[in-house]
Amino acid sequence: xxxxxxxxxxxxxxxLFMIETLDDTQIEVSIxxxxxxxxxxxxVYFCVPLRAxxxxxxxxxxxxxxDDKLVYVISKTNALNLVHMxxxxxxxxxxxxxxxxxxxKILLEIINNR
Length: 114
Fold this sequence. Notes:
29% of the residues lie in helices and 18% in strands. It is an alpha+beta fold. A hairpin with a 7-residue loop joins strand 1 (15-18) and strand 2. It comes from Candidatus Desantisbacteria bacterium CG23_combo_of_CG06-09_8_20_14_all_40_23.
């Protein structure tokens, strides 16, 4: 390329999936290259299939438009998904763990002040 000999290599970064949820949702941790720094960072995603939304039938069979809104209801049957998300987020990095601990401290403070 432009008179310079290059060799090509591929960098494979892992993506982990937690698929044992109660409503076919999926928790994903994707290790990605950082944009503005050297190194990698974990990205945590909560993937919700269309059928898991309360009002999914509103979108079935048609294209979505910008003002469409989907409703994901957290209930007794799927609340454990939220617990799993917090655990996975806290495991993703030391900074994520610190953030989770701080959030839990605030929640405990709110509960104890009631």
